[in-house]
């Protein structure tokens, strides 16, 4: 049987005793006639992991379609070949606290070093933005971050950056993939232990740069912070202390790095239940604000006081607040903000109004920070999935640490004025209209169902959604707004919008909903109306997609 021969050949060169034992047991079950084991083995060797959002991401385990030491070594060898062809001389490598992340990082360094390129590994498990910062700080030609961000605990990933500190985009991704495909057996890949493990200097520089983003305003603020079992906790507490803020209350059960993520179903602040412990702590201490980072700390979630309780802000609300604060602080300091505000095409469009009001440029980009970071003269960029770039000159990627720090500064400044975050959101609503956004995700067991659903929507698009006529449909695969083609559909309604696209990292369809409600009287009434209109659109989209599952 060809599949068993492939598996046995893989087992013979697997350097990892754990995945080797797992594969050996799986082969034995297949030999014994176990149909489930045969399906699992077939899936493990069903092609190879492909570059998606800036690199590799997949389930840990043996096989070419899994994340393991052979796949990582081949990826590193392909990257090294690409860099040698382009004159690359230095690479810095970071890693998070997931299972095998450090092993994958050191394997990568050994392969990069074996190719004659200087390889440097960060001194410990650190946030992704520290790696993005280190690329330019150290003058590297590329960077690798071993992380699966907020994916489930059995996943890991491999993000690739080039010398500008941003994640790879075409044609570099395809060129690196071609180099990976040309790599031979593991034994043929040169490796060397002559790589450098960095000391704490690069982290010191990152912390100093983060603190330098703040002004000299108030610092009195009470915060609750959760690292969601990730690597952001110690770095965030350090920048908070260096910036002069009181120490936040830590969500103790989630502060230490733990790749099993034992207190949550998914280690993503957006997932139901993920913020329950932080919300409980905030209620207990009467905090002004809740701050959360995802496991690799490139995202930031914020919770605020709302009436007598708390609520988590959407990514669009945080993006609008940060954009407003950056411009407002510049106005207050007599140093007007310059540059361009940018966002992903699926994010809410309030940012365009804020940018115009501040006399700033505005741009949209394809989904993913690898595209936002390419916007010329970028001053601030965000995507609704809790990603914010507040200092593109230093970290040309989303950075949950600096976004969190700026949110603390904003909350402290408002508190000194006797105001809160909701007051600013209400002010923005009265000035520009209430931009209400929401998301809907449909997870599927078979990825093929996603392509089928998109094809059916293209062939037979809806003429109405949530009781509103579809004014226009844009097939993003054909290009729109001057952007490169991408798989997605955008439906424009009167004062509303729906975008549907496949996730770039998970087996699900993602839908992005927006309604715009003018505020002519009571803002609470406008908010209730927006909520009702969003619910109607969400119900309509849900019904359409459930039929296609």
What order do the helices and strands come in, and which of them pair?
Blueprint: H1 2-13, H2 17-31, H3 35-44, E1 55-59, H4 69-85, E2 90-95, H5 101-114, E3 118-121, H6 128-137, E4 142-146, E5 155-162, H7 172-181, E6 196-197, H8 201-212, E7 223-226, H9 233-243, E8 249-250, H10 276-285, E9 289-293, E10 300-306, E11 309-312, H11 315-332, E12 340-344, H12 350-357, E13 361-365, H13 369-372, E14 378-383, E15 387-389, H14 400-416, H15 421-432, E16 434-443, H16 448-459, E17 464-465, E18 468-475, E19 489-493, E20 496-502, E21 508-517, H17 523-548
Parallel strand pairs: 2-3, 2-4, 3-6, 7-8, 7-9, 12-13, 12-14
Antiparallel strand pairs: 1-5, 4-5, 9-10, 10-11, 14-15, 16-21, 17-18, 18-19, 19-20, 20-21
Helix pairs in contact: 1-2, 2-3, 4-5, 4-7, 6-8, 8-9, 11-12, 11-14
Unreliable residue stretches: none
Q: Which CATH class of the largest domain?
A: Alpha Beta
Strand arrangement across the biggest beta sheet = 1-5-4-2-3-6
Secondary structure class reads alpha/beta
C-alpha-based Rg, rounded: 24 Å
Helical content band: 25-40%
The total of beta strands comes to 21
Number of domains: 4
Average pLDDT metric: 95
Which topology of the largest domain does CATH recognise? Alpha-D-Glucose-1,6-Bisphosphate, Chain A, domain 3
Distance between the termini: 34 Å
């Amino acid at each position: 049987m060809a599949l068993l021969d492939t598996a046995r050949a893989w087992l013979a060169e697997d350097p990892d005793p754990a995945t080797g034992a797992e594969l050996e047991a799986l082969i034995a079950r297949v030999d014994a006639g176990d149909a489930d084991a045969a399906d699992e083995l077939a899936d493990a060797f069903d092609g190879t992991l492909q570059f998606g959002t800036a690199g590799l991401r997949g389930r840990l385990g043996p096989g070419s379609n899994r994340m393991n030491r052979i796949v990582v070594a081949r990826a590193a060898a392909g990257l090294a070949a690409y860099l040698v062809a382009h004159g690359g001389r230095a690479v810095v490598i970071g890693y998070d606290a997931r299972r095998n992340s450090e092993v994958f990082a050191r394997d990568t360094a050994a392969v990069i070093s074996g190719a004659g390129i200087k390889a440097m590994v960060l001194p410990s498990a650190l946030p992704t933005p520290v790696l993005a910062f280190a690329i330019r700080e150290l003058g590297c030609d590329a960077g690798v971050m071993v992380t699966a961000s907020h994916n489930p605990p059995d996943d890991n990933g491999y993000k690739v950056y080039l010398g500008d500190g941003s994640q790879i985009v075409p044609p570099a991704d395809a060129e690196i993939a071609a180099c990976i495909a040309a790599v031979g057996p593991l034994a043929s890949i040169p490796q060397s232990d002559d790589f450098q493990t960095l000391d704490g200097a690069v982290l010191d520089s990152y912390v100093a740069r983060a603190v330098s983003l703040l002004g000299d305003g108030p610092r009195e603020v009470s915060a609750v912070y959760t690292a969601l079992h990730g690597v952001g906790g110690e770095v965030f507490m350090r920048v908070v202390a260096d910036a002069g803020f009181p120490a936040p209350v830590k969500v103790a059960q989630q502060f230490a790095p733990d790749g099993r993520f034992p207190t949550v179903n998914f280690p993503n602040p957006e997932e139901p239940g993920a913020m329950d412990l932080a919300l409980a702590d905030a209620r207990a201490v009467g905090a002004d604000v809740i701050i959360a980072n995802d496991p690799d700390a490139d995202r930031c979630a914020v919770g605020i006081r709302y009436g007598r309780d708390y609520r988590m802000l959407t990514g669009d609300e945080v993006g609008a607040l940060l954009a407003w604060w950056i411009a407002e602080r510049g106005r207050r300091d007599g140093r007007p903000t310059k540059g361009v505000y940018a966002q992903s095409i699926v994010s809410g469009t309030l940012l365009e109004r804020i940018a115009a009001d501040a006399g700033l440029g505005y741009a949209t980009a394809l989904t993913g920070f690898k595209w936002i970071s390419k916007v010329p003269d970028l001053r601030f960029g965000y995507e609704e999935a809790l990603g914010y770039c507040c200092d593109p000159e230093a970290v040309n990627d989303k950075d949950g640490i600096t976004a969190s720090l700026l949110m603390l500064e904003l909350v402290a400044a408002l508190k000194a004025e006797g105001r809160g975050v909701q007051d600013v959101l209400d002010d923005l609503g009265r000035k520009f209209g209430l931009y209400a956004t929401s998301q809907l995700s449909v997870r599927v067991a078979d990825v093929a169902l996603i392509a089928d659903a998109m094809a059916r929507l293209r062939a037979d698009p809806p003429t109405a959604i949530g009781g509103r006529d579809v004014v226009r449909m844009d097939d993003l695969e054909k290009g729109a707004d001057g952007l490169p083609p991408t798989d997605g559909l955008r439906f424009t309604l009167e004062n509303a919008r729906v975008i549907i696209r496949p996730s770039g990292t998970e087996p699900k369809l993602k839908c992005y909903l927006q309604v715009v409600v003018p505020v002519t009287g009571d803002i609470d009434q406008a908010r209730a109306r927006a909520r009702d209109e969003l619910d109607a659109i969400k119900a309509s989209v849900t019904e359409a997609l459930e039929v296609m599952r």
